[in-house]
Design goal:
Length: 129
């Protein structure tokens, strides 16, 4: 009877250590994923800021484009602070008040802005033909 009790306590200890190992592995994987996501976000922000030149696009700016300057990124996108139609929060250096390093919620991701940019170019080409 005593050996049976000893076997049970050992198996409970083993199962507890296995559960602890699984938990430690999960925590380690979460940290690794968090670091990976942070690096991806930083790379996306850098790409977005380079691609957009830290500017705001407005409906007026987009509608006033002529066919001669469609190819020129700088002539289409003019920096304007008021009444922005599309705004990239990736380029802003503001953090939440909690200071936990999370960005404020973005209106559009860099991939969405890139898609919008190319759709606008296509529409302008079609309109000016």
């Amino acid at each position: 009877m005593e050996s049976d009790f000893h076997t049970r306590s050992v198996s409970q200890d083993e199962s507890q250590s296995i559960a602890d190992e699984i938990l430690a592995r999960r925590i380690k994987n979460r940290d690794r994923q968090r670091r990976y996501r942070r690096k991806r976000l930083e790379a996306d922000m850098q790409r977005s800021c380079l691609m957009e030149g830290r500017v705001f696009w407005t409906a007026e700016t987009i509608s006033n484009v002529s066919s001669s300057n469609i190819e020129s990124h700088e002539s289409i996108v003019q920096p304007e602070m008021q009444g922005s139609l599309i705004h990239s929060a990736y380029c802003s250096d503001e953090f939440t008040a909690a200071g936990n390093g999370r960005r404020k919620q973005e209106k559009y991701s860099s991939r969405q802005l890139w898609t919008i940019w190319h759709l606008v170019r296509l529409l302008l080409k079609l309109l000016n033909q």
